[in-house]
Design goal:
single chain; alpha+beta; four-stranded mixed β-sheet; 21 helices; elongated; Uncharacterised_YfhO; transmembrane helix
Length: 658
């Protein structure tokens, strides 16, 4: 309940912050040129950014949207610094950096940092005061230093993850998808279960029909301010980087950490931000032209003719059965596009008409009514888009407890469960699966999972830990990983995504230990304990040979561990009188305490991932952690009763040699 309340509050705060920062950003002046946008333009900008596609799509996650929404705050601080140079501006500049980096998505924070430095340099150059760029950069670097407690462990994790090695141009936006800048549901919507083309959340560049029209108007205005040109360039460059263009591929080819290993399309948020800013500039420029009685009718007519022609061309393609030259489009897909293009077209024509009335009208009251109506239409458009995407549920439906989950909570201990359920459903209830942390999971663990197919090491999946259910060694890996229960949804039948427990009659009890009308749990009788003692070891330094040894029929992993180097002490032959006792008395994310008793010296194997930053203390003595069975942890233990404590310090992971 507290989690649900906090998450909902964070989502609402996200919108309010985006709204407030966007409104403030360009209400200040800088030397030599005014950035002050009137209240109508500032309001339109804030509405457009507050509910833009990227912010709305990622708002519920509480990470990506938050990293991006501090962009207006940073630019506001920079603008204020040039106007006043006061303490408030320097605090805003420095504080905005950790606020972004601590929000939880480093790729977006890097974009945030880049736009901050570029904007600071441009403003300094425009004001003929480059020394201010270095001052602003210094304040931003202070913010980076404040962010180091989060950044350093994150960099360590990134270096251990498979993602750090995959330099690919993934998630780039196909050119036909650019139509969603005007009509976000042109290819359907995941909420209504009719989306069929593209990645709705990753590719959202929508900033509102009204905002789009006024942003485009800045292209046609004469005597553009240098800041208008800056944001036009920002919109153009970021759109090229988000789309499937040679420029995007070129950036990826440079193999820039994080930038070249993540979805390139996410830079679309900077495009949406630029469009939102330009929308305010465009409305402000239009009203100023009307006030000064400038003759811009010809400009307006040319601009509106181009927009209307483009919209009519799209309609012509739709009615002729051509959905932007996408070959796989069916008649059903065309019907979706036709239905979802009606409202954007209507809003576009209505906005064009309202602008023309504004240009000619003389009555001040009607003038204000039309302006207010435009803002209300923009609000309706953006709010409708946001409410369609964002889920609203009763609090009791957030992570509701189910009988099958309650059964596992009572009976699974610290074993794991496997099946089509995912960590998203397990972690809130204190249950553990084999999936790891998506997408930054440890590379060696992913490689081990890939060996389930045939025992050959292959590059792991880019974002998810995916076990080949029909693999030769799938069952053996599940045993080693301590999977006690196979989770089964009756509606899945014998789909490829279901582990075929029915093929393992001898080792998996075919009578479910739990059953209800929807779910069943099957118990794995060969499951390994999370921690166990072995008294034999094999040393192999080659990765593939380690796997070969592990899966060899001659290797019993319950009695023998495969290490990569010799342990400090040699295990001597010993007469074992009684069975080893291993009791995990405490298991938390950062501290694991184990009591054990054995007649002979041995090696304690813990089937948790080997990772720098973990420290092992055996009987009050720091003991080296060995990498065991390709990716797990092991420590040498003496005969008799012992206490082993594993503890994790994220900052030790930066310099640890373990």
């Amino acid at each position: 309940t507290e989690f649900a309340r906090t998450t909902a509050l964070l989502s609402l705060i996200c919108l309010e912050i985006a709204n407030a920062y966007s409104f403030m950003s360009f209400r200040h002046k800088v030397s030599f040129e005014s950035l002050k946008v009137n209240k109508y333009g500032s309001t339109l900008s804030s509405i457009s950014f507050m509910f833009c596609g990227f912010i709305v799509s990622w708002m519920a996650y509480g990470t990506l949207a938050y990293t991006a929404l501090y962009i207006p705050l940073l630019l506001y601080g920079i603008n204020r610094y040039f106007e006043k140079g006061d303490l408030v501006s320097t605090v805003l500049i420095s504080a905005s950096v950790p606020l972004s980096f601590l929000s939880g998505h480093i790729q977006m924070s890097i974009y945030f940092l880049i736009i901050g430095f570029v904007y600071a340099f441009f403003s300094s150059w425009q004001n003929k005061s480059l020394n201010r760029f270095f001052v602003i950069s210094f304040y931003m670097l202070i913010g980076l230093v404040i962010s180091l407690p989060q950044l350093l462990p994150s960099i360590s994790l990134y270096n251990q993850a498979i993602r750090s090695e995959l330099f690919k141009n993934v998630e780039a936006i196909p050119l036909p998808y650019a139509i969603t800048i005007l009509a976000p549901d042109f290819f359907g919507n995941p909420v209504t279960r009719n989306d069929w083309y593209g990645h709705y959340a990753e590719w959202g560049g929508f900033a509102g029909v009204v905002g789009f029209i006024f942003a485009g108007l800045t292209l046609c205005m004469r005597n553009k301010s240098k800041y208008t040109v800056f944001f036009i360039a920002l919109a153009f460059v970021t759109l090229l980087l988000a789309l499937e263009t040679p420029l995007a591929s070129l950036i990826v080819s440079f193999k820039i950490p994080v930038i070249s290993t993540s979805g390139t399309s996410r830079i679309i948020v900077l495009f949406s931000f630029a469009v939102s800013v330009l929308a305010g500039f465009g409305l402000d420029a239009l009203l100023q032209s009307v006030k000064d009685k400038k003759q811009i009718l010809k400009t307006l007519m040319v601009y509106f003719s181009v927009i209307i022609l483009l919209v009519l061309t799209v309609w012509l393609l739709i009615f002729t059965g051509n959905l932007l030259f996408i070959n796989e489009a069916t008649s059903e897909h065309i019907a979706i596009a036709k239905r979802n293009f009606i409202l954007p077209s209507t809003l576009l024509f209505g906005t064009v008409g309202a602008i023309m009335i504004l240009y000619f009208i003389k009555n001040k009251l009607l003038y204000r009514v039309i302006l207010t109506s435009l803002l209300l239409v923009a609000s309706f458009d953006m709010l409708r888009f946001a409410m369609k995407w964002m889920p609203f549920d009763e609090r009791e439906f957030v992570f509701p407890s189910l009988p099958v989950l309650e059964y596992m909570q009572k009976n699974i201990g610290i074993h794991r469960v496997y099946g089509p359920i995912g960590n998203e459903a397990l972690l809130p209830f204190g249950l553990q699966g084999i999936e790891g942390y998506d997408p930054l999971y440890i590379r060696r663990y992913g490689e081990l999972i890939q060996t389930a197919t045939d025992g050959v090491i292959r590059p792991p999946e880019r974002s998810v830990v995916k076990l080949n259910n029909s693999g030769v060694y799938a069952k053996k890996l599940l045993d080693l990983l301590g999977v006690k229960y196979i989770f089964y949804s009756k509606g899945d039948g014998k789909g490829s995504w279901v582990f075929p427990f029915w093929n393992y009659e001898e080792s998996i009890n075919q009578t479910p230990v739990y059953r209800d009308t929807v779910y069943e749990l099957y118990e794995n009788k060969d499951v390994f304990n999370r921690a166990f003692i072995v008294h034999n070891y094999i040393v192999e330094t080659d990765d593939q040979k380690i796997i070969d040894r592990m899966f060899s029929t001659e290797t019993d992993l319950l009695s023998t561990v495969v290490l990569e180097k010799n342990p400090p002490l040699t295990l001597e032959k010993c007469d074992i009188q009684e069975e080893d006792v291993v009791d995990i008395v405490s298991y938390t994310p950062n501290i694991i305490s184990i009591n054990l008793e054995t007649d002979c010296p041995g090696i304690l194997v813990l089937t948790d991932n080997y990772y720098p930053g973990w420290k092992a203390i055996v009987n009050e003595t720091i003991t080296p952690i060995l990498r065991a069975n390709y990716t797990f942890r092991a420590v040498e233990i003496p005969a008799g009763a012992s206490r082993v404590v594993y503890s994790f310090n994220p900052y030790d992971s930066i310099t640890s040699t373990n």
